[in-house]
From TrEMBL:
It catalyses: 2 GTP = 3',3'-c-di-GMP + 2 diphosphate. InterPro entries: Diguanylate_Cyclase, GGDEF_dom, Nucleotide_cyclase, Rev_trsase/Diguanyl_cyclase. It comes from the Bacteria. This is diguanylate cyclase.
Length: 141
């Protein structure tokens, strides 16, 4: 098994679709097993380093994307917030100008929403704000 392991990591070190036999490695090493196992150590170290780099990079990317999403969305409603609006507005104005298109902006303000919170409690107000667009009436009932 150790010979197969040495050949496997040598093949990985050489790149994709490479066939390496332990016997050919021994011939190239001139019968010096010590050099062969040093090379095996280097190959294993290289493969593990590449895998760890990929893993850390992917985890970091996921964390940055999650932080960006959280910074641009309201936690309760999952709607984009003012920070997102400000960043996106300039891009949309530029795109509309570039293509010669009109741009419409709609803002929604809930008048007297404080009365819902005061009359029914903040948990009920939160349920109304977090209601799905498919069933808003059931959330506020």
């Amino acid at each position: 098994m150790s010979q197969a392991d040495v050949a496997l990591y040598e093949a990985k070190g050489r790149g994709r679709n490479r066939l390496v036999s332990y016997e050919s490695l021994q011939e190239n090493a001139g019968g010096d097993d010590r050099d062969l196992y040093v090379r095996h150590f280097e190959n294993v170290t290289r493969v593990l380093t590449e895998r760890m780099t990929t893993l850390v990079t992917n985890m970091g990317r996921s964390l940055v994307e999650a932080a960006r999403r959280e910074a641009n969305q309201d936690a309760l409603t999952q709607l984009h917030n003012r920070r997102y609006f400000d960043a996106r507005l300039s891009r949309e104005v530029e795109t509309a100008h570039k293509h010669g298109r009109a741009l419409a902006i709609a803002l929604v303000d809930l008048d007297h929403f404080h009365d819902v919170n005061a009359g029914f409690g903040y948990p009920s107000g939160d349920r109304c704000c977090a209601a799905s667009p498919r069933s808003p009436a059931t959330a506020c009932a």
